[in-house]
Amino acid sequence: MRKSHSTPTGKMLYPTLRYAAEMGGNLHSLELVLMLLLAFVASIAGVARRWQKPYPIVLVIGGLLLSFVPHLPAIPLNPDIVFLVFLPPLLYSAAWQTSWRDFRFNFTSIAMLAVGLVAFTVIGVAWVANRWLLKEFDWRAGVLLGAVVSPTDAIAASAIAKRLGLPRRIVDVLEGESLLNDATGLLALEFGLDLMLHGTAPTVTGGVLRLLWLVVGGVGVGLLLGIIFTRLEHWIDDGPVEIALGLVVPYGAYLAAEEVRASGVLAVVACGLYLGQQSARIFSPQVRMQAYAVWETLEFTLNGLVFVLIGLQLPTVLAGIKGYSHMEMIRNGIILSVALIVLRLVWVAPGSRVAYFIRRHLLRQHVPYPAMKASFVVGWTGMRGVVALAAALSLPEEIQQKNLIVFLTFCVIFVTLVLQGLTLPKVIRALGLDNISGPDCEENEARKLVLEEALAYLQESRDRAGEHAGHAYEDLIHQYEHRLEAVVDCGEPETTEGHSHRYREVALAAIHTERNALLRLRDEGRISDEVQRKIERELDLSEARRESPL
Q1: Pick from 400, 411, 340: which is nearest to 140 by CA?
Q2: Taking the CB of residue 327, how many other CB atoms lie within 10 A of it?
Q3: Within 67-106, where are the H helices?
Q4: Which of 236, 323, 359, 531 has the smallest count of CB within 10 Å of its CB?
Q5: Cα dist. 236→200, 244, 253, 263, 280 in Å?
Q6: With a threshold of 0.90, does the pTM exceed it?
């Protein structure tokens, strides 16, 4: 993304540094605003969790209400900050946690949404804008508007889907779409800017070549940096250093790809998918636990700030509208929002059937025929987020419709997040798709096989070790046997009053007793805080293991 059409995308770092320098002129105020925002994010997210609502939706509403507070200083959402500071780590974290096997298996369905739906949305919005929106929107401005609002934000949707037990294949498709449609939406925006500023539409050959370079170049840069990071990890065995390097990786992938005019989004996604697969080999258990904690906190903080900042943009958005009443603009915002919802619903049903035909008859994948209920749920999860708003704000000033596009994008984000986000649980329950995923046979089978192999190893080792080491082996064998008993075979009802359940209860009670004794020793001054923290960490790990049968 760029500030003006003539600025190379790879140079985005420089306006970002200028913006930081300007803000640094009043560092005390910046620190105060950041502290208050973080406190607001944490408190509102806590309220959202208590209400059992997706925190992105509650944060947007909270930010919107906060914008009405008198004398509140304006907090602009700089698009360069969004694309450079927020987007790379959020994409990287999502890609890291994505299953490559499931992503590859569902790629055809994901592509129908991330590529086909984006193109359909751009064309559909251009038609709606030309016929139903303000007179400033001809078909060229409509194409630009469609490109801006085409990327979806599936954070809230995937969170709701997981909590309600939506079938895993639907969740995988939604998460895969959110990883890729940012790249295709930004490519459409690039074409839309060329059309608006130069009056030239890309040729079919030029468009295909540009798309190929964005994909091949972006994926290539991401994989290259992933391989380099993997090699470095073999030379480093220090948790803080490894985590610090991991924080640099998504930014390096994004900037490197943008410098060669490839897709920074795809570079980050490719790097995250690759390193997510390699993490079991390159990280020690200690580093892996630390890294997960750091990334979970960072992801929550960045997401929270982004959604609050979206809500806080209302005064800035309204200030840019001149010559139209607020009611007239709101009416146009509703028309565009409804059009986007309808366009997605219209596309998903036939698109899922085309994907089914390709996967079943050409790729020979064993997938069920797409049900209308599942297609409707996927169609109802087209919520827009910060990428759409940042894309609108980044439009060059010479585009006369910029302020109108920014306002309409804000309306789309608010309507889709609040309306679809809050009604999605009811839609899922009404269609009978909640909690139908059933037992996780794959997980239970994996637990069972892992424990059985460990038991076989211990029994063989005990026989070789002789009687002098028999007691140590017997204790471990008994522990593994109890854990194996706790694993429920797929299709069998899980008992909660069995021997294995009682074993875990007794083990957890013993750990709590150890913890109370440890705290008493610390309070009495018989041990130092350092000793207390060391033993406490061991107890924490032991308790976490006892919470799970494996």
Answers
A1: 400
A2: 8
A3: 79-81, 87-96, 100-105
A4: 323
A5: 51, 12, 20, 30, 15
A6: no
